[in-house]
Amino acid sequence: DGEASGRPMLVVWGVVLGFTLTRVLVDQGWIEGNPLTVYGIQYALAGAVFLFGLAQADRMMEFRRLRDRARQDKARVDADLVVEQVRRRLIEELHVGIRGADAKDVEWLAFRRLLEAVRSLVPQQGSSVIAFGYHGLDLLLAEPLGLKKEYTRLLARRGTTIKGLCRSRKPVNLPLEEIALPDGGVVPGGVFAVVPLQVAKPGWGVLLVRREEGSAFEPFELQLLGEFAQVAVNAADEAAAAVDLRRRAELDPLTGALNRRAMEGRLQASVERTHAERRPLALLFVDLDHFKQVNDHHGHGVGDDCLRLASDCIRRHLGKDDLFGRYGGEEFIIVLPDMRQDAARELADRIREAIAGLCVVGEANVTFTVSIGLASRLPGEKSPRSIIERADKALYQAKRGGRNRVQVASSHGFGLEGAAAEFL
Ligand SMILES: Nc1nc2c(ncn2[C@@H]2O[C@H](COP(=O)(O)OP(=O)(O)OP(=O)(O)O)[C@@H](O)[C@H]2O)c(=O)[nH]1
User: Fold this and answer.
1) For residue range 146-181, what is the model confidence (pLDDT) as tens digits?
2) Is the Cβ atom of 331 under 6 angstroms away from ligand 1?
3) Which residues touch 414 (CB under 8 Å, ≥6 apart)?
4) 204 vs 166: CA distance, rounded Å
């Protein structure tokens, strides 16, 4: 550039030099004077000054252009840096925040983190994540506090449109008019960035980001939202898979009951908690009667079916805080925290009766029964071992007493007879 603007100046200075020589020759009388030979030097100098000014203006403009471009580049780099920082923070938070979280909280936590991240990146009036059938959840709604109602209404009115847009799997702008409802509520309006979540079918999910009407999201914003949503979905998928793996490692594959190791850990915690809170706890030892005969007469497959049926039946009788584990081949333990002995006995009887009514349908219809030993945590008792021992003894008595019955353990001989029988 410098070379290009320098060339005309060189020519002009050459012309000035030429006219200076001509003037000298005129002054010496060697050539004839006329306006060109006498004043040519002034014309050439004026031209030189004009061209110099032009070149300077050019340089100035070029300088401004470069400065503006540098500013834009810096702004872009700064913005990219902010995006990367937020992305890194989101990944870290997802990694730390949802690992080890309760299985039921994993998705919700991941999407709350996502909403916080996009709020700091994309100017908006509010955002929410809505997902159906994701990881087996009916409906998952993560939204800023206090806006649950609005988003629920939005879903009721615009759910089909939003779901339809999710099919394209690409983030898009969706302008929506606000709807005033007869009950005084409103369905929020504005421009919505509809960002489909890549979740396994038949589930579907969307990140919705709202802005005032007339301020559509730029393509780079939509792309950013799509990328961040994907980061959160991946993290939620991984965390849910890890939870699933942990859960499976605790379950008995045949019956789906807790395996013995997991059961012992949970039982210990449950006994300690009820001891600390001075609450009752009942434990049932359940054993299938004459199970060897079932196996011998009908085969191991039918025996397995009996174990599965009995387990499903027991589970149907339990609450969400009760524990159910397979303790041995055909032995199960049921832990009923916060349940007094009377109630536990009634429950045990209901389970016994229900199992007696089961039937494995096959070549022969096989019915079977269970015997149950019941023991309660005694006041002051904080270890599961003695409770299991008592329940086991009671089970033995139930077997000796003719099977298909519930036997309540006696607390005699455990040195706790004197303690208040407050849980019994
Ligand atoms: N089909 C099947 N059988 C099992 C499994 N685990 C243990 N068993 C069988 O369970 C039977 C337990 O028999 P026993 O301990 O003699 O007791 P029982 O025949 O049930 O007699 P009582 O308990 O005295 O009523 C054995 O035959 C085991 O082979 C299993 O996973 N599947």
Assistant:
1) 677 888 888 888 999 999 999 888 999 999 998 888
2) no
3) 378, 386, 390
4) 8
Cα–Cα dist 60/69, whole Å = 14
pLDDT at 420 over 90: no
For residue 207, report the phi and psi dihedrals to the nearest 5 degrees. Answer: -100, 125
pLDDT at 422 over 70: no
Q: Looking at ligand 1, which residue's alpha carbon is closest to its atom 24?
A: 290
d(CA 282, CA 265): 16
Question: Using an 8 Å Cβ cutoff, are 145 and 151 in contact?
Answer: no
Tokens of 228: 């961040």
3-state DSSP call for residue 88? helix
Quick one: which atom of ligand 1 is closest to the CA of 294? Answer: 19
Omega before 8 cis (within 30°)? no
Of 339, 326, 352, 331, residue with least CA distance to 407: 352
Check: CB of residue 85 under 8 Å from CB of residue 39. no
For 112, 248, 281, 338, 381, the CA distances from 322, given in Å and listed in that order, are 30, 18, 10, 9, 19
* Strand segments (E) across 15-164: 126-134, 137-142
**For residue 366, what is the DSSP state?**
B
Ligand 1 atom with the shortest distance to the CA of 289: 25
Token representation of residue 322: 């009760």
Residue 288 CB–ligand 1 contact under 6 Å = yes
Q: Which residue has the higher pLDDT, 287 or 12?
A: 287
Our measurement of the distance from residue 298's CA atom to the centroid of its chain's CA atoms, rounded to an integer in Å, reads: 48
> Is residue 411 scored above 70 in pLDDT?
no
Instruction: Tell me the torsion sign for CA atoms 302, 304, 307, 311.
Output: negative
Q: Residue whose CA is closest, atom 11 of ligand 1?
A: 292
First CA to last CA distance, the chain: 99
C-alpha to C-alpha distance for 194 and 129, rounded to whole angstroms: 10
What is the number of helices (H) and of strands (E) in the chain? 10, 12
Q: What distance in angstroms lies between residue 323's CA and the mean position of ligand 1's atoms?
A: 22
